[in-house]
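Journal club side-thread
Mid-discussion, someone asked how the predicted structure for our own chain would compare to the paper's figures. Pasting it here so we can look after the session.
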Amino acid sequence: MADIAKVITVIGNHPESFAKAADVAVAEAAKTVRGISGADVVSMSCEVEGDRITMYRTTVNIAFAVER
């Protein structure tokens, strides 16, 4: 029988970079989800004030095993 996984979508924010925003998304999800096996960044965006980026945002699909 094939393994079954569930995928949730979370959004991470960080003022320094897209990579850190993705790290935040996975770290926060890991606080309440067991068995994370992968993450896929599906989009990136940012907040801009004036002529500067003030916040990086990533939308991340996180996969984890379904427990039986």
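Post-session note: Residues 5-65 form a domain with the Dodecin subunit-like fold (CATH 3.30.1660.10).
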